[in-house]
Amino acid sequence: SEYLNKGSKLFISGSYIASDVQLSNVLNTNKMNFIKDKLKFVLASNHAVKNGTVVNISENFLPKDYNFNFVTEMNDSIYNAEAPDALKPVNESKTLLRYKENLYSAAVAYKGDYAIIAFGFPFETIKNERDRIKFLL
Fold first, then answer.
1. How far apart are the C-alpha atoms of 15 and 107, rounded to whole Å?
2. How many CB atoms lie within 10 A of CB 56?
């Protein structure tokens, strides 16, 4: 909270960024409220997709209809995202990316007193290096 309250920017990614807290056997209201109120998303679905095709829906983020893939199958070169989260935007955040398989929200963003981009899958599992670089620029 201190970091964000300074007007900072934060990029978050991972398969379980919402489901670990929201589906835990131990209810932690403080963590759930932090994710909802500060990070601006909640869990829409765990195990959101089986294939890793993602499409852009925000022309302010990437070119219109831009799509890419992330690793969902076991392989020898990188770990796979076997259970990506679908993230529901809340509190003025917006969906940036959708999973092509079912159109669940794959990434959300918020820009206000601070800025957040959250991916429901691990950034490093994006297959094409060019795609990873495009996000970072």
1. 11
2. 19
Residue with tokens 């209201």: 29
pTM of full prediction above 0.90: yes
Query: Considering the chain, what percentage of its residues have pLDDT values greater than 90?
Result: 74
Q: What is the pLDDT of residues 26-79, one digit of tens each?
A: 778 899 999 999 999 999 999 999 999 999 998 888 888 899 999 998 888 888
Could you count the other beta carbons within 10 Å of the beta carbon of residue 88? 19
CA atoms within 13 A on the CB side of 71: 17
Contacts of 137 (CB under 8 A, 6+ apart): none
From the list 91, 92, 126, the residue with the least C-alpha distance to 106 is 126
Contact (Cβ atoms closer than 8 angstroms) between residue 48 and residue 84: yes
